[in-house]
Amino acid sequence: MRKPRKSKATRKPTGSGLPSEAELLDFIASSPGVIGKREIARAFGLKGQNKIGLKTLLKELEEKGTLSRKGRKVASTAGLPPVTVLEVDGIDEDGHAFGIPVEWDQEANGEAPRIRIRHEHGGQAAPGPGDRVLVRIEALPGGETYAYEGRVMRPLSRDALRVVGIFRRSPGGQGRIIPSGKKDRYDYHVPHGDDGGAEDGELVAAEVTRPAARGLPQARIRNRLGDAADPRNTSLIAIFTHGIPDRFPDSVEEETRKLRPFSHEGREDLRHLPLLTIDPRDARDHDDAVWAVADDDARNPGGYEVIVAIADVAAYVRPGTALDREARKRGNSVYFPDRVVPMLPERISNDLCSLREGEDRPALACHMIFDARGKKLSHRFTRAIMRSAAKLAYEDAQAAIDGKGSPKARDLLEPALKPLWDAYAALSRGREKRNPLELDLPEKRVVLDDKGNVTGVIVPPRLDAHRLIEEFMIQANVAAAEQLIKARTPLLFRVHEEPSQEKLRALADFLKTVQISFALGEVVRSSHFNRVLEAAAGTPHERLVHEVVLRSQAQAVYSPDNAGHFGLSLANYAHFTSPIRRYADLIVHRALITALKLGSDGLSPQDISDLKETAELISAAERRAMIAERETVDRLIAAHLSTKLGTTFRARISGVVGAGLFVTLDDTGADGFVPVSTLGRSFYVLDDIRHALVSSETGETYQLGDTVDVKLAEVAPVRGGLRFEMESDGKKGPKPPRVGRHRVRRPNRPRR
After folding, report:
1. DSSP 648-685
2. How many Cβ atoms from other residues are within 10 Å of residue 134's Cβ?
3. pLDDT tens, residue by residue, 384-421
4. Which DSSP letter does residue 144 get?
5. 642-744 CATH
6. Which among 62, 177, 429, 543 could bridge 165 via Cys, Cβ 3.0 to 4.6 Å?
7. What is the DSSP letter of 327?
8. Rounded CA gap, 681 and 46, in Å?
9. What is the DSSP annotation of 368-435?
10. Continuous segment of H or E residues that includes residue 594
């Protein structure tokens, strides 16, 4: 910002007696200190009627957006309207967010001003870098670091202001963006000079500068993301569409560089124990390690002592730091097939906090004692030093138990792996008694080559090694929640509420159609759903029943209020075991440090006061990550199938709506849509109870869970969209009932 010039005592006005607009703006911009109407009148020697004229001129300039006034203060906005949209550009050393105007004519007005953002909580999260806010511009007194302040009127939806898609250049220097979103109705016009230098066919991220009114909406390109045909750029679509922060601010990088190794003082030494990390083969960070041994206490025959040691992220990420603010904003790491967008910088997640084999690391250790039936008898938490005895993949650990595996894993069989499996056998007995919801939900994984192309989709086998780690982590999470409840320390619970009565009634109505009973009017437990799943096992309806039971469940969230975890059949549950990739776990670590007086880096007063807001932020970030990950997989698989138009695939009906059927291909897990127009010439009715489309004339039925043949008719790789045509006849069934159904229009064309 230019240095202000000293103002003259009196400036000669123009012939009218009043200064011109240019003279007035030049004086305001070049004057130090607070400038008001009195100072302007004195500077230009205005008296009598000219003072009234000045008042009118200032009001006109304010309405025009050329000036901003607050009380008696006046400032030139140099093109800033009194109400404008700012994009948050960073956080200054005093903790103030600052932003720049989204709409700014740099040629006419020079470099965009930095505007301090004034945020009054009102239950809403403070804006962070990349956020958009609607603000009212106000002038600040001379001598301030900023010339203007923007008072937040409301945050703006990123989705409403951002578009990602393929840029297509038109003659004359203009162009258009073909958007990547499945729900986008329009292309976007890019005026001359707003293309950011993008080339034809390039993937771009743009801001919407004018919504659709008459003609196409208008956008300005902000980021060039690379060749749209390169699959290595596919995940960038989701990153920019959903506003996932993928670059760490300079302040975070600087704090990370200054971090020093942890202190050993006051920590329990666990380096003599063969603690193991057991993770996916391609895992880059390792935040949990496990150890078990038979309990030598004669009062606990057949019992086990178990330690779950978790990376002590709280030792490095302190409350109120730039690192902490960024982690809270991100909420969690996001995992795409080709990359990870981490919650914490790589030096922390892959080095300082990662439980590397053979290296000393700080940990928060949960010591638990179980009896022979898997009941937890006691637990305690310590801050510790540990040294991982080995890094094993799930497959390596399982192979060693099965009498195979690498020499490294077999060497650990007696001292480490067998005691772990013996302890897991006891914990499994406790799990069976608890009877958590046992849905069969295989997870598919996309396999890429070194160029980012899909080479296949696999369903990794579900091993006892996976179940062992999962159960050990659940028990540590329960222990953390119980410890903090006992200490009455604020924390974030992982809450999964029971299904709503509306969903239970819908489920019961559906189950009647497949001759399975489900009693209403009693307290529902996960065991009730398990009995339903057992009744469906081995029947033609097995897969369908699993789908409908899943859809009846509530979504798990984070909350400072405990409502239990219905799916796991647990009264007290919190996330403690993954602080490298989940902010909720870091809060629980701090809470334990506070409750047990394990250091000065526990919960801060701000952590506690912001707990509800934090829960909402990270729950939303979790949902955002799930959607972004799913959309990226859809796009990659759509690109993979783009050369297979006309091919027939085996599929399963995964959704039913009035407009048609959603299907999931058996071999790739790709999701697509079958319009009702490809089902036949009959009227089709949506039967809500049976989750089916039914011919009102013949009773021909297409139902959720049915296996069908579909032909690939259309592919939109950037949108991740696949359209299919039905090749299979529906199954025979009764004509639809008159209650609980919706009529679907007659198809326009016969089945091909």
Report:
1. EEEEEEEEEETTEEEEEETTT--EEEEEGGGS-SS-EE
2. 15
3. 999 999 999 999 999 999 999 899 999 999 999 999 99
4. S
5. 2.40.50.140
6. 177
7. H
8. 84
9. EEE-TTS-EEEEEEEEEEEEBSEEEEHHHHHHHHTT-S-HHHHHTIIIIIHHHHHHHHHHHHHHHHH-
10. helix 583-595
What is the predicted pLDDT for the residue at 740?
A: 45
Eight-class DSSP state of 350: I
Cβ-contact 601, 315 below 8 angstroms: yes
Task: Give the C-alpha separation, 682 to 252, whole Å.
Answer: 62
Q: Shortest CA distance to 692 belongs to which of 727, 751, 650, 733?
A: 733
- Other C-beta atoms closer than 10 Å to the C-beta of 405 total 20
Structure-block tokens of residue 13: 């006005």
The predicted pLDDT at position 748 comes to: 42
Work out the number of other CB atoms within 10 angstroms of the CB of residue 620.
Answer: 14
Options 2.40.50.700, 3.20.20.70, 1.10.10.10, 3.40.30.10; CATH for 159-229 is: 2.40.50.700
Q: Is the dihedral of CA 480, 483, 485, 490 positive or negative?
A: negative
The single-letter code of the amino acid at 569 is: S
Task: State the CATH class of domain 1-76.
Answer: mainly alpha
Per-residue tokens: 161: 């202001």
CA dist., res. 44 & res. 32, Å (int): 16
One DSSP character per residue, 485-546 reads: HHHT----EEEBPPPPHHHHHHHHHHHHHTT-----SS---HHHHHHHHHHHTTSTTHHHHH
Handedness of CA 680, 685, 686, 690 (dihedral sign): negative
Pairing of strands 721-726, 707-716: antiparallel
Is 619 within 8 Å of 655 (Cβ atoms)? no
Chain centroid offset of residue 656 CA: 27
| pLDDT tens digits, one per residue of 731-740 | 988 877 654 4
CB 548 within 8 A of CB 691: yes
Structure tokens at 729: 């006849």
Indicate the pLDDT class of residue 103, thresholds 50, 70 and 90: low
Enclosing H/E stretch for 478: helix 464-487
Task: Indicate the helix (H) or strand (E) that contains 291.
Answer: strand 288-294
Contact (Cβ atoms closer than 8 angstroms) between residue 424 and residue 465: no
Residue 732 is given by DSSP the state P
pLDDT-based confidence at 90, cuts 50/70/90? confident
How far are the Cα atoms of 26, 78, 80, 105, 220 from residue 108, in angstroms, in the given order?
15, 9, 12, 6, 17
The residue behind tokens 């990870």 is 340
pLDDT band at 73 (very low <50, low <70, confident <90, very high): low
Residues of 679-691 as b/e, b for ≥16 C-beta within 10 angstroms? bbebbbbbbebbb
- Cα maximum dimension of the chain: 105
pLDDT at 61: 67
For the segment 521-551, what is each residue's pLDDT rounded down to a tens digit? 778 999 999 999 999 999 888 888 888 899 8
- What pLDDT does residue 366 have? 98
Predicted TM-score (pTM) of the model is 0.77
